[in-house]
Specification:
alpha/beta, Aspartate Aminotransferase, domain 1, Aspartate Aminotransferase, domain 2, 13 strands, globular
Length: 366
């Protein structure tokens, strides 16, 4: 079996080789400060006893699992601490497929490219349902696509790449679709702290045994290198997920878990609100310049991505490379996220040079 390498790596390498300065708007790596408590936790950990540098419990430090469980309203035994949200999604999708219910995974179009990649790796079959022009997902479309072959329905809210936030009625209906088809709804909620709309609704509120929720601290704590995520499983699905996690990763970083726990306990909500305000300012600056460039664009309700379309300039990899070479701005081609946004580009607003990037794009397209 051959796996397709996501285009992220190609674009980043191309930008690195460019003969000019390039503003990186490719990947969702927050450029702002992590919580001070996270730094304090890592410093403190360096001076702990030698036994703290041994393997942690495979499913995560007990104190961290209990803290997550208390915040999410679940039992700590339902929580597995993973090697980032990426592994959490892998475990969730694997657990959904290995039930033998069906090998089809319903994905949205546009889609975060790692979901279809994981589907292929796990031996599943991809089935795509399109979102509307704002990135919202119509549960009726999912209901029509679901069948006895459906093993899982994978959604991401707030969404990458569209910035859509699925409201309560959407999430409730998706839970109903999963239950009606004996499928598993996998809800990736890693951008939950970046809900700018006030309409975010976690799948956990429905207490369904057909839901797995994944999350992590890469985005909310501005620490993509920390590699601490988690998945919340229904009780009847947890055991095999623990075994797969142990066989694939043994455990995730003990110092990272320690620091994440301290940050959870000590970081004031004002930290997250300040980051949301920063994003609101960046969205306004970037979209104002896109207006000047005559572009069509999405205004994110959550996460930190803007998709843009420029007349007569499709969102191909070739044109991404042109923007790098001629405008000095690196984004992602829309074709990387599925068929429905092939003439769009996706830009991550995680650089202090957002205004400069927008000006460069406006100048390029004037």
């Amino acid at each position: 079996m051959e796996y397709e390498t996501p285009l992220f790596f190609h674009v980043m390498e191309y930008a690195d080789r460019a003969d000019r300065d390039v503003i990186d708007m490719v990947s969702g790596n927050p450029d702002w400060e992590p919580p001070e408590a996270l730094r304090d936790g890592l410093r403190e950990y360096a001076d702990l006893e030698p036994d703290r540098f041994e393997y942690p419990p495979s499913d995560g430090l007990r104190e961290l699992r209990e803290e997550i469980a208390a915040r999410r309203g679940v039992d700590a035994e339902q929580v597995i601490v993973t090697n980032g949200t990426g592994e959490a999604n892998y475990l969730a999708m694997a657990r959904a497929l290995e039930r033998g219910r069906g090998d089809e995974i319903i994905l949205t179009d546009p889609v975060y490219p790692y979901y279809p990649g994981k589907t292929t790796m796990l031996g599943g079959t991809q089935r795509f349902v399109e979102t509307d022009e704002d990135g919202q997902l119509d549960p009726a479309v999912v209901r029509e696509a679901a069948s006895e072959e459906t093993g899982a329905i994978v959604v991401n809210t707030p969404n990458n790449p569209t910035g859509a936030v699925y409201p309560e009625e959407t999430m409730e209906a998706l839970v109903d679709v999963a239950e009606a088809n004996d499928a598993i709804l996998v809800s990736d909620e890693v951008y939950d702290h970046f809900d700018l709309s006030g309409t975010f609704s976690s799948a956990l509120r429905y207490e369904s045994d057909h839901c797995i929720v994944t999350n992590g601290f890469s985005k909310s704590m501005a620490s993509t290198g920390l590699r601490v995520g988690y998945a919340v499983f229904p009780e009847h699905l947890i055991e095999n997920a623990r075994s797969r996690h142990m066989l694939v990763n043994v455990a995730t970083t003990r110092p990272g878990q320690y620091a994440a726990l301290r940050s959870l306990r000590e970081t004031n909500p004002a930290y997250h609100e300040a980051n949301r305000e920063l994003l609101r300012d960046r969205i306004a600056a970037f979209t104002d310049a896109l207006d000047a460039a005559g572009a069509e664009y999405t205004t994110p309700e959550g996460s930190f991505y803007v998709m843009a379309r420029f007349e007569g300039f499709d969102g191909s990899l070739e044109n991404v490379e042109r923007l790098i070479d001629e405008a000095g701005v690196a984004g992602m081609p829309g074709e990387a996220f599925g068929d429905s946004r092939g003439d769009w580009f996706r830009f991550a607003l995680v650089t202090p040079q957002v205004t400069e990037a927008a000006s460069r794009l406006a100048a390029f397209f004037e």
